[in-house]
Backbone:
């Protein structure tokens, strides 16, 4: 990474820290990124649930949502949790945190299975509805377990410096497509 990239990254970190000061996780900038991603994921879940419950038949809509759940919820968001946050916590946190992480990792595996089923069922409305509702219920519960469970329980083991280090790692792994995927949710919200 050259000097200019470093400067860009520093500006990104400062911008994110400024947002954190206005939010609920003051002093925990990496946690705030994950909580903000949860908010986008919950909006996508709402679109999916409303569409299947109202019997919307629109293959493009479900393909766009499946893409969002694979690339954003799973690859970008769960990727950060597994490869950066959980990995770090496993090195420093006590046993009860490890147990919480094991449960959350199992949810990630189940989420991957259900998104694959959603993709396979796009032309079968009844199966699609069942898998979509199962996925929505699992993922909403999973997000609560993190927002109200792990993210609070882990704070004593992550100093401000460690949170800032993780924030830098998050920014390094985020692909340029992150914003484009968030735009899919904004676009679909206007239509559904
Ligand atoms: Fe997670
Ligand atoms: Fe999460």
Residues:
């Amino acid at each position: 990474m050259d000097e200019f990239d470093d400067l860009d990254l520093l500006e990104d970190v400062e911008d994110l820290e400024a947002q954190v000061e206005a939010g609920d996780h003051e002093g925990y900038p990496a946690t705030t990124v994950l909580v903000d991603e949860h908010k986008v994921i919950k909006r996508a879940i709402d679109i999916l649930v409303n569409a299947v419950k109202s019997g919307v038949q629109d293959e493009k809509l479900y393909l766009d949502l499946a893409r969002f759940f694979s690339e954003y919820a799973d690859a970008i968001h769960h990727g950060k949790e597994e490869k950066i946050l959980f990995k770090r916590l496993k090195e420093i946190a006590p046993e009860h945190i490890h147990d919480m992480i094991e449960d959350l990792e199992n949810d990630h595996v189940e989420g991957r299975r259900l998104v694959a089923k959603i993709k396979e069922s796009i032309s079968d409305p009844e199966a699609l509805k069942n898998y979509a509702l199962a996925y929505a219920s699992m993922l909403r519960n999973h997000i609560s377990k993190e927002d109200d469970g792990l993210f609070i329980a882990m704070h004593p083991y992550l100093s401000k410096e460690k949170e800032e280090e993780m924030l830098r790692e998050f920014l390094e792994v985020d692909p340029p497509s992150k914003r484009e995927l968030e735009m899919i949710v904004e676009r679909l919200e206007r239509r559904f």
Q: What stands out?
A: The radius of gyration is 18 Å. Residues 34, 38, 77, 81, 143, 146 surround fe (ii) ion (ligand 2) (CB under 6 Å).
